[in-house]
Design goal:
There is one protein chain. Helices cover about 55% and strands about 0% of the residues. The protein contains 18 helices and two strands.
């Protein structure tokens, strides 16, 4: 075991997740999005929770073979965090200098591109903080204080208008992005990881702590996203809020490092615990990353997607005065798959 019961005030830590060669059968028919929606319900049943745990073991088997950016020793975490923050802010300063010198936006070619991004990352943003949910039951244990406080702040400290998920829902609604239908299945992977950690914290405690450690560090893409959204007239508050709360002084980045030191075993195999923390941190890079989302934008495909989504509502609402290629508009809109030929 990692910690003697009298040391921990009894939170259970399971043995390390077992790597398996093929864990894909754990995903029910319908894929990642289906399991994501099941875990996002108010209280998924035990079978669904276990499917989430099985999915996590598969992801951990993958990341265990990948390099890790964390230091070899947890005692070096503070220096690692400070070096990362300095690197990010230095690169952001260079970005600002480039923009002042006339360079184009690095992320978003236009407003439609930015809206595509906001929609595509919604499955992740709409479960913000979920990975810490399973630790709430230990709120009386001082060794979990930093993690529980981080979770409470993700919820807005009790103020609905500061709740991170609510903020993102409002952002989507404000710009008419009211559905995630048609989002590619792999866009749900990162959010699914977070939900699965939240519902299985007892079995994946070191991985939860590690995921929180990696995910709460300030990334460069957060700063650039906020800057360019503002430039395009889109509200950047959700992103600027994270720049604030994730700071390395008293914010989530610093607390995440402290949480590792608070929970590191005093009795037991600290090295094994730390290795699981490192693997948990690597889970934050799984799924479609920010750069991949941005690079995947195709304005023609977006036009087709939007019209295909709207065609059932538009079918039957047009007169026959105008025809395209000899066919009435209602006829073109009768089947969504007609849309590419209709546009052509």
């Amino acid at each position: 075991m990692y910690i003697a019961a009298h040391e921990w005030s009894s939170p259970h830590v399971a043995s390390p997740p077992v790597a398996q060669s093929d864990l894909s059968p754990a995903i029910p028919q319908g894929g990642l999005a289906h399991l994501y929606r099941q875990l996002a319900t108010a209280q998924p049943d035990e079978a669904v929770r276990l499917q989430g745990a099985h999915f996590l073991r598969g992801q951990l088997a993958i990341v265990s073979r990948q390099p890790c950016s964390l230091p070899e020793s947890p005692q070096d975490l503070a220096a690692w965090m400070e070096a990362n923050a300095q690197n990010v802010t230095a690169r952001y300063s260079l970005y600002l200098d480039e923009r002042k010198a006339g360079a184009p936006r690095r992320f978003f070619s236009n407003r439609a591109h930015a809206l595509y991004f906001l929609r595509s990352v919604a499955p992740t943003k709409l479960v913000d903080g979920a990975w810490l949910y399973g630790l709430v039951e230990h709120w009386r244990n001082p060794r979990f204080a930093e993690l529980v406080q981080t979770y409470v702040e993700e919820l807005g400290d009790g103020a609905v208008d500061k709740n991170h998920v609510v903020l993102y829902r409002k952002l989507l609604s404000r710009h008419g992005i009211d559905t995630m239908d048609g989002i590619a299945d792999d866009f749900y992977r990162q959010g699914l990881i977070q939900l699965a950690l939240g519902w299985n914290a007892r079995d994946f405690l070191p991985e939860v702590i590690g995921f929180n450690l990696g995910y709460e560090q300030l990334p460069l893409h957060l700063l650039i996203t906020a800057y360019e959204l503002n430039e395009l007239g889109l509200d950047p508050y959700y992103f600027t809020l994270h720049v604030t709360v994730d700071n390395g002084d008293t914010g989530h980045a610093r607390r995440a490092c402290q949480a590792v030191m608070d929970t590191l075993p005093q009795i037991g195999d600290a090295d094994d615990f730390w290795e699981r923390v490192r693997n948990g941190a690597k889970l934050g890079d799984e799924g479609v990353g920010t750069s991949q989302v941005i690079e995947g934008f195709d304005i023609q495909q977006e036009v087709v997607r939007i019209l295909m989504q709207k065609s059932p509502a538009g079918h039957g609402a047009h007169s026959d005065y105008c025809r395209v290629a000899g066919r009435p508009i209602n006829d073109w809109l009768s089947q969504p798959q007609n849309i590419p030929d209709f546009l052509a």
